[in-house]
Amino acid sequence: MQSEALFDFLPVSSSSEETSGENHAAERRSSFPKETPEAIFLRVFRVLRPRTPPPPIRVHFCDFANANSFIQLKHGEIDARITDILESAPGDILEALAFILLSKLYRRPVPKDHSYRYRRHLAAKDVRARIASVRQSRGRKELADPAGAHYNLVEVFEEVNTRYFHGLMARPQLGWSLRVSRQTLGHYDPSHHAIILSRILDSPNAPRLAVAFVMYHEMLHIRFPAEHRAGRRCVHTPLFKAEERRFEGFAEAKAMLKAL
Length: 260
What we know:
Elements lengths: L1 E4 L10 H16 L5 H12 L8 E6 L6 E6 L2 E7 L7 H15 L6 H12 L1 H14 L14 H12 L8 E4 L9 E4 L4 E4 L10 H16 L3 E3 L2 E3 L3 H7 L5 H10 L1
Parallel strand pairs: 2-4, 5-7
Antiparallel strand pairs: 1-3, 3-4, 6-7, 8-9
Helix pairs in contact: 2-3, 3-4, 6-7, 7-9
């Protein structure tokens, strides 16, 4: 049995309530008992399953290329593999993550207060910067040459750039995906400053208007980076959606993509 937890960056409020919350968090951390990660997971296990004898628990900090953490029950032992980004995290953050992972492992609702605390920690500027740095240094962006069998993404980018961005957007790394995907037609990776389009669009069945629209959509992600509001990461903001509708042939392009 295995469960994965991945929590993206979330915002920190700029109100006076935020300062109060941060002070409260600091008080919690200063008074939090010094425990090993294994001890924290064991204590949380006993809270979630008080009548069950706890199995051996092993916690490893791993040099993942992102902020993922994993947990599995194997051969009667709980094995938690946590991103080393959190190796120096305060005890209450590891406690929150323990509640999240163990709740998922045993298919229980994740306590909202622990989920919020963990997300808030990942939203901190220094943590977000560390995650971005780790993704850039450890992660590899696998993509195919932008010159495909039917469309050259450099040409598509320059056309869209000239038409909608006055030719002022610096060209990011461009490429086709290595695999055909109908669910993800394109994405922008800010860590590697790369736009990748699904290979399914490099086909005579994909009209150029549809390819240009997907490119335009991903370019908007460069122009309008994700915002962090009220505990959530907002990618497609109202402003983003309004700009997206400026694409000439918006409805037609959307219909074309659905027909692929």
